[in-house]
Here is the input.
Amino acid sequence: MDKFDYIENPHRRYNPLTGEWILVSPHRSKRPWQGQVEKVVEDVRPPHDPNCYLCPRNERVGGENNPDYKDVYSFQNDFSALLQDTPKGKFEDGELFKAESESGVCKVLCFSPDHSLTVPEMEVDNIRKVVDLWCKEYDELGSREDIGYVQIFENKGAIMGCSNPHPHGQIWASALVPLETSKESETQKEYFEQHGRTMLFDYLNSELEKKERILVENNSFVALVPFWAVWPFETMIISKRPVSNLLELTDEEKTDLADIYKKLTIMYDNLFEVSFAYSAGLHQAPTDGEEHPEWHLHMHFYPPLLRSASVKKFMVGYEMLGTPQRDITAEGAALRLRELSKVHYKSKTK
Ligand SMILES: O=C1CCN([C@@H]2O[C@H](COP(=O)(O)O)[C@@H](O)[C@H]2O)C(=O)N1
Ligand SMILES: [Zn+2]
Here is the structure.
């Protein structure tokens, strides 16, 4: 088959991490928008909000009080979706009705005592303290016999259903490996057995040669728009050195992770000059006590905004019933993001 000019024509792209395909319609990105417009509420927040359950010294809904923490703080979710003492068990009624117990620990991570901040507005040294908290939690939870996977993530922005603007993240640590990471475990294991290198090591080196989807890099990490991105401005952070989890990172690499997390989220905020919503999370090796040389540490960013501070993409209709679909190409999104100032739009006005 000769070289297909996929950039101008409708085409599918393969995601080697999940083994799935996505539909791309480059010709459509010019169509007018008459749909729903999200109202852009740029709230000016105080450094301390007496009603915020994440702020230092405040009482949480469950009656617990937060300490007067000075940098990061984590606590067990008062409304955990997973419980540690869930009785183990399986249910099967023929081959069509199956259920099994799931247990685990959910935690809330406060990134800063300052209610008014978001990650792009935090100092790298303070984001590094978030990285150190991630490492501590991954180590403690992951070393438990009853925890098989530790999912560290951040929901940011009200349109992502985030209930509180205070800079924070979450951890859901479960006995079983969740769906998305079990897909990525399979594909990375297969690739590693075939090539003797991690999939993302080869992928990243190809992307660094092609350049067109690279956003920003430092000594240890690269931020890019993956070839197979689904959400309009979906991105990934990938470690240059193939490490399987946060604990294998050197001191310098941990600071570089904080640095690239800030650099990428500044780009995001500068895109529409609004605090940019996303769900983001780290993907690391399962914590089953085995070595996982096939796993390559990376972070996914899934932002909903499509073409302005108030127009978001809906993953509905054909995307739910058929295949996820996008108009603007991954290359187009990367070009838009790469051109943006590296200085946060709010600090320019200070
Ligand atoms: O007092 C509280 C309120 C909210 N929470 C928890 O904070 C979490 C914040 O979630 P978001 O990241 O989606 O905003 C949410 O999972 C909620 O259960 C507490 O643990 N204690
Ligand atoms: Zn707060």
